[in-house]
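User: Show me sequence and structure for the first protein, then do the same for the second.

Assistant: Starting with the first protein.
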Amino acid sequence: MGRLKLPPKPRWLRGFPSNAMAMIGLLVFANLVIWAVVAAAVLSQVGGSLAFVTVKIVKVGDEGDEEVVVLAQHTKYVRGTAPSV
């Protein structure tokens, strides 16, 4: 399986990691395919050099019941972003 060739990032997104852009693209794709979804993305940083991203996409049924469609977690080493103590 080959890598997906993406266009260059816009200038205002150059600070975001590519994996975060892939998660945003996944959210947009899921929203186009499944029209009744609830999407939540949580970004937290622990320890100063690791970033944790969790994306959860839930399909809402007719009676209000929720079915998890996508649950993605990603850990990223972020160099030089921790505040100096």
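Switching to the second protein now.
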Amino acid sequence: MPPIIFIHGLNSSPSSAWELNMKWENDYGHADANEGISSTESFTGNTYSWAENQPYSNVDTHYIDSYDNGDDSIIELPERLIEYNSYTPNVDLFAYQYGANNHVGIAGDDLESFIQGLRTHVDSISSYQDFNIIAHSKGGLVSRHFIELTDGTLDIDRLITFGTPHFGVNNSAAGDLDRGEQ
């Protein structure tokens, strides 16, 4: 089974989009540690202090701490893959977070660093193995930037997107919504 990377959309996070929880808070230009992080809670074996911030290019800021399976009536896709398809967080199932209000290009470049970091620090990922990406909304644009502009085609087998504005957004219709005219 190919490893999978889940990528959230605009103004979101891995937790709110996919119920993949991390000890790093999604901030604008960097990730903030919500608590102290031990060497067993990072890909590199590094430790981090509470409130320490790191760039999203640091692979450790994407380490999955837990997945929320509290509501049995709704099973998110990552949980389904973990529970029924033998995927394991931080082994072959990953979440990539980026500053949700940051530029697509910056997030795409950091995605490249994240994938290189996985290849370096995760034993189950070989140097030639391709990833599948499942992305929502802006996460699809981030993925496309990585694939199309940074030679990401060498790393990605499949890209699956949900609600991604691949052809842009027609703002003319939105402008008509609050004119108060009939």
